[in-house]
Amino acid sequence: MKLIFTFLRQEHLDFLYSVRNHPDIRKNLINDNEISKKCHNEWYKKYRTDDKNYIRIIKIYQFYNVGYVNYIYLENKRIEIGIKILPEYQNLGIGRIVIDKLIDELITIHNNKKILMLTVFEDNISAIKLYKTFGFKIVNTELLFPRNKKLLTMERNMKNY
Fold first, then answer.
1. Which terminus of the chain faces fewer neighbouring Cβ atoms within 10 Å, N or C?
2. Fold of the domain built from segment(s) 3-116
3. Pairwise CA distance, residues 150 & 78, whole Å
4. pTM
5. Domain residue spans in the chain?
6. Model confidence pLDDT, tens digit, residues 26-38
7. 71 near 79, Cβ under 8 Å?
8. Spatial separation of the C-alpha atoms in residues 44 and 29, rounded to whole Å
């Protein structure tokens, strides 16, 4: 399966809005409230001027948008990553390909960074298993209020790939 990462453009805004507001995606976000169109557009304007936050649309064979990845440069040579794939495209191996491609890209472009990190809720078992196959380890657990869910922070060294 050929996956392509496309830089976020204005024409992707409606698609990105639908992914961010999909109920199955929202349940795995820290803020699970529905995002208004106004907030989404304001977020996009802010994103366009932020040189530490990147979003890429995931496409299959250049035709089908299936989700997005984002990465944010943090202090201490860390990059936080996030992956959102529409439910109808989950459990098809896309997540594995996306993580592999994303890690390769980040190592090539940003080899001065040392640590990749992500957060995931403890009940998202399939995602945790996938991240562990790529060498991510749980480094912190916190109870997230008011949702009363445990949020795991996972990290991996970029050099050990």
1. N
2. Aminopeptidase (3.40.630)
3. 22
4. 0.89
5. 3-116
6. 999 988 999 999 9
7. yes
8. 18
